[in-house]
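Inputs:
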Amino acid sequence: GESVGLHLPTLSVQEGDNSIINCAYSNSASDYFIWYKQESGKGPQFIIDIRSNMDKRQGQRVTVLLNKTVKHLSLQIAATQPGDSAVYFCAESLKTSYDKVIFGPGTSLSVIP
Amino acid sequence: KAGVTQTPRYLIKTRGQQVTLSCSPISGHRSVSWYQQTPGQGLQFLFEYFSETQRNKGNFPGRFSGRQFSNSRSEMNVSTLELGDSALYLCASSLDQGRNTGELFFGEGSRLTVL
């Protein structure tokens, strides 16, 4: 079926260090990718997105990298803070169906103070 | 601007019953999507509505249904509840402006427990 998978289900990092969360996607036709953050008791929240015609996009403290050759997506968080502790989901969609967004299983990020 | 509102936040049902969940999207958002979230399966796409029409559908049995009203509010219904339907049901809305963005705005979900 449709799926987007993650390499690491859990990740613990020291406060101040950089975090890297990886994601493998299976649908080579996907051309739009998004990272969401979900804190306990809340719905997922948009972090950053990237289209398939790009290989890198930067936001505030976050960078998303896309490698279409190996169908790999990563989220880099600079200077990780305790407030970054959450579950992170990568998601994909097709140009023809932006509103059908398929989510990966998620990675739990734990920041050690 | 108010966010996505889902009601009820928590509910408990027994097997065989049916349940209706409600979602009010952000004002001006015309697309509403529903997801089921469980620890074992993650976020699974249920369906997406736009202008009162189901535009996309996930791989769920016919017991799961939904609809959207003219004011973009949406409801989903699950009939003949099973224990495995226990989950957090999330609603998300989006602008759907010429498909230029896929950003979804999520509500806090409705936590359904089936006993």
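The interface with chain B takes residues 1-2, 32, 34, 36, 41-46, 49, 89, 93, 95, 97-106 of chain A (CB under 8 Å). Flag for discussion at group meeting.
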